[in-house]
Design goal:
By secondary structure, the protein is of the alpha/beta class. The protein contains 18 helices and 18 strands. A hairpin with a 5-residue loop joins strand 15 and strand 16.
Length: about 600
């Protein structure tokens, strides 16, 4: 990496708002650029994308790392001169990626210093593009905390991600987090937009450097008037292409500048009547692409395996449905057998109520055996039915006979009905197979309530149901215990995280020099004010350079923010919310802020 301290991006120009001699070089400190927060704006065609490309080219010339979020597919022209990895959803990219590649993309960018264009312009599904950008942003932030390497993230059309009005999604919250907390980890961000009125003002007011190209819409020029001055709001409408007002923390002034033209192919230029010729683009190392291709192949293999498992699951579900049907058929057979047995026993009791229970069971056993032996032969069934009818007409018939038809429905009818249904029953110890109308087989049900399982084995319904219910209760109890354990762990982790928030902010304030801390106390007690007044109140001489230098320390730590017209406001409570990822309620935020003030601001300023 080159030991470059500054890069030259423009020259001063003449005209309203220009405070310097024309033709002077305009430089940007590299460390401020890579780790700070920037904002480039201007209407379409005013030169904002050219300015962003010039910044990118200068960084690439000196070997510095960056990642460009390209929403319109206009930065691939950089590959005309530089070996830069172009990833996205388009076939023209070096490789097509999804959110599964986010970790590897961040690793290549930060750990291997590979410049990357993240092209989200070709994703047809906006949700897919947002998920990819969200995951890449999260991975960059997480790795930057460990890597501590200056790195710039350049985001085109940032008003789509961090809008001033309406809801802001997860990707917007992540970009705001990088803007407010990324500097301490070496991660900088530059937002680009043609509509400053639509960009969240919390982002714009925290920027270290701002570039205002030509703007003509009234709402946009009002933003210029609020941040700069009304004189600049009028002059910004008449700027030439590539010309802009540039405001930086390190210069403490507003300059009228003309940015240089980019060297590489301008893929964002408006198409004309001439034939379009795509330039020859540099290719990247096959090793870089192969690492990402491995992830794509693993994803495809995983998806294929998932599809196979789904097919297997569908087959098993179909088989389960078949077995459930067979089981229900077996239960129906058992219920019908019980009904027949009850009818048989009731009939026997009606014929000879004086019989003992043992005799009734014996007679029932004989009757069931007779039914099983005769049910498959229609001729014998008819003969038995005829004989039973004849005996019923005979007043001297054997009282032990079980074929009494005088009541209007005898056993002959019952036997015929069961035989017609194809049901065979056996009261003995050996069960014979019963075949239903569909050809499905099940074991004959016996009088002890056993039924057929899917393997043809006899199981007890009540015992199986009890076992299943016991297993379900045990599983439910285990699940509840696991949820309670997770909740306790989350609560403990949340407490530790909150304590870390207070400790980290306290440490930042403790590191401040006494005079800088007293300036913070001034903002806390007096409200919004100028750095000069805060410096004078803190015991300083009121020197402008010293005042703004100390004030900048407070702003970079997120303790104060620019609120317009050169004034800065106290924002400790906002910082507490940000450091806790907005997970605290207002009462807790107030409690933590008060603890910090008592420990690190009020105590030291009283001394």
């Amino acid at each position: 990496m080159a030991e470059t301290e500054q890069i030259t991006v423009a020259d001063t120009s003449s005209g309203p708002g220009g405070a310097e001699e024309p033709g002077q070089s305009v430089d940007i400190p590299v460390v401020e650029l890579l780790t700070g927060r920037g904002f480039i704006t201007g209407k379409s065609g005013s030169g904002k994308s050219n300015t962003a490309s010039v910044v990118a080219e200068k960084l690439l010339d000196n070997g510095f790392g960056l990642l460009i979020v390209d929403i319109d597919g206009e930065y691939y022209g950089l590959k005309e001169e530089y070996e830069i990895l172009h990833v996205g959803g388009d076939e023209e990219c070096d490789i097509q990626v999804t959110e599964e590649h986010a970790g590897k993309i961040a690793s290549l960018a930060l750990e291997q210093n590979v410049p990357i264009i993240l092209d989200v312009s070709s994703f047809l599904d906006e949700q897919e593009a947002e998920e990819l950008l969200t995951q890449v942003s999260k991975q960059l932030f997480a790795k930057a905390k460990k890597q501590k390497q200056p790195f710039l993230m350049l985001v085109e059309e940032c008003h789509e991600w961090i809008p001033e009005k309406g809801g802001m999604g997860e990707v917007g919250r992540m970009l705001i987090k990088i803007g407010k907390r990324g500097r301490k980890h070496g991660l900088g961000i530059v937002g680009i937009s043609q509509r400053p009125a639509d960009v969240k003002k919390d982002y714009i007011t925290q920027c270290d450097w701002l570039v205002w190209h030509r703007l003509t819409w009234n709402n946009d020029t009002k933003v210029v008037g609020r941040i700069l001055d009304n004189n600049y709001a009028d002059a910004v409408e008449d700027l030439n292409d590539g010309e802009a007002f540039m405001m930086t923390d390190w210069a403490e002034s507003v300059r009228r500048v003309q940015f240089h033209r980019k060297k590489t192919f301008d893929a964002g230029a408006t198409p004309g009547l001439d034939d379009f010729e795509r330039p020859e683009l540099k290719s990247v190392s096959d090793d870089l692409v192969s690492e990402l291709e491995t992830i794509s192949e693993e994803k495809q293999a995983t998806e294929s395996r998932i599809n196979e498992l789904r097919e297997e699951l569908d087959k098993k579900n179909s088989r389960i449905a078949e077995l459930e049907t067979e089981l229900q058929d077996a239960r129906d057979l058992q219920r019908m057998a019980k009904q027949f047995t009850n009818a048989l026993v009731g009939h026997v009791e009606g014929v000879n109520p004086g019989r003992t229970a043992q005799e009734e069971m014996r007679q029932q056993h004989v009757s069931l055996n007779a039914f099983a032996e005769n049910g498959d032969e229609s001729e014998r069934a008819d003969a038995d039915a005829t004989g039973a009818g004849a005996e019923a007409d005979d007043e001297t018939a054997d009282p032990d006979s079980v074929a009494d038809t005088t009541s209007g429905g005898g056993f002959g009818d019952a036997f015929s009905a069961f035989a017609a249904d194809g049901i065979a029953m056996n009261g003995g110890s050996d069960s014979e197979t019963a075949v239903d109308a569909n050809g499905a087989s099940a074991n004959g049900a016996s009088s002890n309530g056993a039924q057929a399982s899917e393997n043809g084995e006899v199981t007890d319904d009540a015992e199986t149901a009890d076992d299943a219910e016991t297993a379900d209760d045990a599983a439910l109890a285990a699940a509840i215990a696991a949820v309670e354990d997770d909740a306790d762990a989350d609560a403990a982790a949340g407490t530790e995280a909150d304590d870390a928030v207070v400790g980290e902010i306290l440490a930042d304030i403790e590191e401040l020099e006494d005079k800088t801390r007293r300036m913070l106390a001034y903002y806390m007690e007096q409200g919004p004010g100028t750095p000069l007044n805060a410096h004078f109140s803190a015991g300083g001489s009121g020197d402008r350079t010293s005042a703004y230098a100390r004030n900048r320390v407070l702003r970079l730590r997120g303790l104060v923010e620019h609120v317009g017209r050169g004034k800065y406001g106290y924002r400790l409570r906002d910082l507490v919310r940000e450091e806790s990822d907005a997970s605290l309620d207002e009462a807790t935020v107030e409690e933590y802020a008060s603890r910090i003030e008592r420990a690190a601001i009020e105590t030291h300023t009283e001394e």
